[in-house]
Amino acid sequence: MQKAERKFGLQKTLYDGFNMFFVSLLDGSSAEIMRKKISSLLLGGHMPPLVHLSRYLEKSISDGSSGNYVQTKYVQEHLGNLARAVLMRYPILLQGPTSSGKTSLVWYLAAIPGHDFVRINNHEHTDLQEYLGSYITDTTGKLVFNEGVLVKAVRNGHWIVLDELNLAPSDVLEAFNRLLDDNRELFVPELQERIQAHPNFMLFATQNPPTLYGGRKMLSRAFRNRFVEIHVGEIPDNKLSKILEDRCKIYVGHAEKMVEVMKDLRLHRQSSRVFAGKHGFITPRDLFRWADRTQRFGNSNEDLAKDGYYLLAERLRDEDEKSVVQEILENISHGIRARFSDSLAIVFAVSRRPSAMVAGSPY
User: Fold this and answer.
1) Phi then psi for 297, rounded to 5 degrees?
2) What is residue 136's DSSP assignment?
3) Do 127 and 151 share a domain, yes or no?
4) Burial 147-173 (b: 16+ CB within 10 A, else e)
5) Which terminus of the chain, N or C, has less C-beta within 10 A?
6) In a domain, 363, yes or no
7) What is the mean pLDDT of residues 18-40?
8) What pLDDT is stored for residue 211 in this prediction?
9) SS3 285
10) Domain count of the chain?
């Protein structure tokens, strides 16, 4: 609190504190209502001045500009929430649907002060040794301890992201207890050593909502209370098309059509017997792959159709599901050019031959 007050003054510090603990875990519409309420009570209805992200960080070797990272208002709000928590060195839990940009937010913010960024993907069989390390034999045959990625991050002050934390086994979660409290210590049983976290060390975790995704368990309330929780919602469709256009350097009309395809495929998700859930057919990550293919291998309407079909349909085993993808692409194509649908028919016919291949596909 005192550290923030010296930088920004009392009113700005109070506003940021209320935002960090009461606004960051809400969705977009609820967060906007709460922000207005906080500003009316603390600042007489006036919003505080905007502060550049770098001022929340200890140092800055970058101004935060990146050709590969598109900052919309939606993204800037999440970055601001992250930066406030980083200033206070609180552990951060980002919750949101798949492909909503949770990990990339941390990656981008870490690049501003130049911190090393480390990421661990969790699953139900994640072993504690992957985090802490284990004994191995070196080139001379001696038994030495090979430190795990978490131990190295704690020692050296890296920023680490624990992806899908609610998939990790209980023994892995228990190992974080002292690291998440005020002690910021990590105990390594094999070494019988308590490692004090480097001042620059930051721990982030991500999870998909367990009520919407199968196989995820609910993290206990006591465990979650150790984090500042930040809700990262789905990227709005109008923002997603802008991000596709700017990041992948594709024609704006193609970006909008890709988003339309995603919306229509989601409406058909319940007809799929292979995939379940809202993102059964497609996620925003698939759109970026589609856009990258189109940008690299041609930007014509025919290329857009071909790449979309190969990416979205050819991974499906059920012919009915492939037909759904084909139908959506055909319907969307009418708004671009009449002959687009004709070229799609050729692509579908060729792709369903046993010998059909995608030459030079990057994915």
Assistant:
1) -110, 10
2) E
3) yes
4) bbbbbebbeeebbbbbbbbbbbeeebb
5) N
6) no
7) 85
8) 67
9) helix
10) 2
Residues with Cβ within 8 Å of residue 201, at least 6 apart in sequence: 153, 154, 157, 158, 159, 160, 184
Q: What is the pLDDT of residue 337?
A: 43
Q: What is the mean pLDDT of residues 109-118?
A: 92
Q: Is 93 helix (H, G, I), strand (E, B) or coil?
A: strand
Same domain, 245 and 194: no
User: Rounded to whole angstroms, how far apart are CA atoms 206 and 352?
Assistant: 39
pLDDT of residue 338: 37
d(CA 289, CA 307): 9
Q: How many CA atoms lie within 13 A of 264 on its CB side?
A: 17
284 belongs to a structural domain: yes
* 227 and 292, same domain (yes or no): no
Q: What is the mean pLDDT of residues 157-185?
A: 93
Same domain, residue pair 99 and 119: yes
The partner residues of 202 in beta bridges, in order of sequence, read: 159
Q: Which of these three, 231, 263, 287, is where a domain ends?
A: 231
Per-residue CA distances from 37 to 8, 40, 46, 228, 257 (Å): 21, 5, 11, 21, 38
Same domain, residue pair 145 and 72? yes
Q: Residue 151 falls within a domain, yes or no?
A: yes
Q: Are residues 131 and 108 in the same domain?
A: yes
Same domain, 85 and 218: yes
Residues written for the chain: 363
Helix H or strand E encompassing 121: strand 117-121
Percent of the chain's residues with pLDDT above 70: 82
- Per residue in 81-96, pLDDT (tens digit) is 898 889 888 999 999 8
Residue, of 227 and 212, whose pLDDT is higher:
227
264, 289: one domain: yes
Is 38 a member of any domain?
Answer: no
pLDDT exceeds 80 at position 100: yes
